[in-house]
Every structure is written in structure tokens, then in C-alpha cells.
Design goal:
This protein is of the alpha/beta class and about 220 residues long. About 35% of the residues lie in helices and about 20% in strands. The strands form three sheets. Strands 1, 2, 3, 4, 6, 8, 11 and 12 form an eight-stranded mixed β-sheet that branches. The radius of gyration is 18 Å and the shape is elongated.
Length: about 220
């Protein structure tokens, strides 16, 4: 069984596996919750804020497919693209290389064709106009004209635990991203925090209305 098929099989197992498929249960809840609200309850899993969305108005929630790219190895990205499936988020560990872009127009087109929900790269991207035209959410540290090359490296690997923005990411972890940043949570951590975060979101409109109505802040804010 290939790496991607193994992850998909474990995703289908539900709570005892890696989690649920994006279209049901946990995935629906994570797509609905405000990601900054999660920051009220957790301290871990928050990707370096230097990795930001290259598009405006995006929101992504999906299980990770991972790739570690060593020595500018462009072939590793191609192998990772073949492992993508609808709703997955491709997480790219550039092994500390923040100069060579592994993501561009062809990569985005291929990921979109596979039904990917987005791409997160701990590095840079290229072809920014084409990326924006695809509408595929791409999170990166910036852009560059320097790209990966047609070389192969024994240090590259697909669907293994990787590092992205200071966070360890395993295949099947939930990747949440919007204009504010990126969060990576295990299925267990995501399920544990989701109810509290949704309840907080539900209570916020009433709190804002009280402030807008001129109610004294000392009676509104927790002090």
C-alpha cells in the first residue's frame, strides 16, 4: 500500500485512526470554527507566523500529506503530488532551505487537479500571479524566482513526519489555515478543543453587542 493509500485508510477508520475525512464530523466542525479562537485554548501547534497565506480571504481545514525536500529535489514534490486526495493539505518541509521555491504554477495546477485543499510550505513559492489565478490556498514565507531543480536526493521523503514552521507534522494531522496563520493539530487534540472553541464563537456576538451598546467594560470583560 502506498503512503497516500495508507493515510487514507487510516483516516477512514474514524476516531481510532488518524481522524475523519474532511467532509464529515470533525472536518465540518474545524471548517466552521474561528481559528484565532483556538488560540484562546491551546499553546502548541501554531506554525511560525512568518508562514502566511499568499491569497486573501482563504480558509483551509484538511488532513496533511507531507513531503520533506532535501537538496533542491524537485522530484520529491512530484511524488508528493501523486499522494494527494480530495481535501488533503500538502505540507512541505524544505529542510531549512528558504531560497528555492518548490511550489509554482504547475505544482498548484496538479494539486488542484488532485482535489487538494491547500499547500503549506516552510519556504518560498513562485509564479505568484498564476497561484492566485488557481485560487488554491498557498501558505509560504514569501516568493522567489529561484526554484527547485531536477535532481534526486536520498534525503527527501513523502508521507513521513516533517517540520514546518517549528511544528512537527505527521501525515493525517489536521492542518488549519486562514489569513491569520496556520495551525497543526493531531486528530485527538483537534477533537478535544473543537467543542470549547465553537462555544466561544457562539458567545462572541452577544459580547460584541454589549460593547457596541455602551455597557460598561468592567461588566463585560473578564478582569
Amino acid at each position: 500500500m502506498s503512503g497516500g493509500n495508507a493515510v487514507r485508510a487510516r483516516l477512514a477508520e474514524g476516531p481510532e485512526g488518524l481522524g475523519e475525512r474532511p467532509e464529515g464530523g470533525l472536518g465540518e466542525g474545524l471548517a466552521a470554527v474561528s481559528y484565532p479562537t483556538i488560540g484562546h485554548f491551546l499553546e502548541d501547534g501554531f506554525v511560525d507566523p512568518a508562514i502566511r497565506s499568499l491569497l486573501d480571504g482563504v480558509k483551509v481545514a484538511g488532513p496533511a500529506v507531507t513531503v520533506r525536500i532535501a537538496e533542491c529535489d524537485a522530484y520529491a514534490m512530484n511524488r508528493a503530488l501523486l499522494e494527494l486526495y480530495p481535501g488533503a493539505v500538502l505540507v512541505v518541509d524544505m529542510s531549512g532551505d528558504h531560497r528555492h521555491a518548490p511550489v509554482g504554477a504547475v505544482t498548484a495546477a496538479a494539486a488542484t487537479a488532485q482535489g487538494a485543499a491547500g499547500v503549506v510550505v516552510d519556504g518560498v513559492a513562485t509564479d505568484i500571479l498564476e497561484l492566485r489565478a488557481t485560487g488554491l490556498p498557498v501558505f509560504a514565507r514569501g516568493t522567489s524566482c529561484l526554484t527547485t531543480k531536477r535532481v534526486r536526493s536520498g534525503g527527501s521523503a513523502v508521507n513521513v513526519p516533517v517540520q514546518c514552521g517549528g511544528i512537527r507534522v505527521r501525515p493525517g494531522d489536521w492542518v488549519l489555515g486562514d489569513d491569520n496563520g496556520v495551525i497543526v493539530l493531531s486528530p485527538e487534540a483537534a477533537a478535544e478543543v473543537l467543542g470549547r472553541a465553537l462555544a466561544s464563537d457562539a458567545a462572541e456576538p452577544a459580547l460584541l453587542a454589549r460593547i457596541a451598546a455602551g455597557e460598561p467594560l468592567e461588566s463585560v470583560l473578564a478582569i
